[in-house]
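Fold it.
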Amino acid sequence: MINNPLIPESKLPSLGTTIFTQMSALAQQYQAINLSQGFPDFDGPRFLQERLAFHVAAGANQYAPMIGAQPLREAIADKTAALYGHLPDAERDITITAGATEALYAAITALVRPGDEVICFDPSYDSYVPAVTLSGGIPKRLALSPPHFQVDWHQFAQALSPRTRLVILNTPHNPTATTWRKSDFEALWQAIAEREIYVISDEVYEHICFAAEGHASVLAHPQLRERAVAVSSFGKTLHMTGWKVGYSVAPAPISAEIRKVHQYLTFSVNTPTQLALADMLREDPAHYQTLPAFYRAKRDRFVNALAASRFTLLPCEGTYFLLADYRAISEQDDVSFCQWLTKEVGVAAIPLSVFCAAPFPHTLIRLCFAKQDATLDAAAARLVAL
């Protein structure tokens, strides 16, 4: 008989609670303005809420199809065609998931085999590498440098090996607020065209892009999209992060493998929400079409409010995040500075080093401006006083 509890050997021994959870908890403890975790402090469209209530009352409360409700998949297909000139097959290419994080996990699990090398770019969103590790893959993280965080394509080519299986990219990029151009996708294609390498393009901020040429998607590149998975999220687009609905778009053979993982991970996503989202895409496309202007105004308001501060602000081409260099204010490392900022100043932020594997020698923090104007003004007043 075993008297002591069995403690499993961790598959992710270096990981603990995410920095987002830590900083949000610290913000709550000290009643700080929370500009750390990426979520709006305002609600999504009233029409969307009303359609959710309608579908619940109409009895759409049982399992949705594993691949997603047909009206939503068809609406996504039409939107993709309108935006990127590519009409995916709604039945075979589009899979609705429990948030973009599930889509990323299912895609990585489906594509990565033990010993495969996976290239991602640091700073990297924190869900990529754990999923690669759990699949037995070997992460290869290429460091990007501020202020523009551009890919060095010569360095990228040198990082490729016969074991390279997958490249994971993110545009617009969290946390650096930079974007890829069409030329970047072409450079990626030229580097991997003759190799058996897949691509996951995390595009959850596709509708929050301020670049002059607009959002460059992997789906707009005719060759790359034949070996790529594009991932997006309704939470970011519709200000409803708590609804946790995302999706992947990939060629049918890749989607088939993603669905094998998805069906045993969540099986399906709640039905009334999917139907409400389909209604929203069909009836109010102006929402996502005007989203860049909506968030550009918030970015500009926050940037102008911080103009008198001692922070140096980096360019912001997309997402609802802004990077700020605090070297004129403190010599602390970024984790310590963010803790101090939360406790003593009353503004919570995210340290950039947590998105990197190697030591990050820069004094940068990430601030979220997906907030009401009054919230941004109050936070800026505290930061300017430093």
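Residues 19-44+289-384 form a domain with the Aspartate Aminotransferase, domain 1 fold (CATH 3.90.1150.10).
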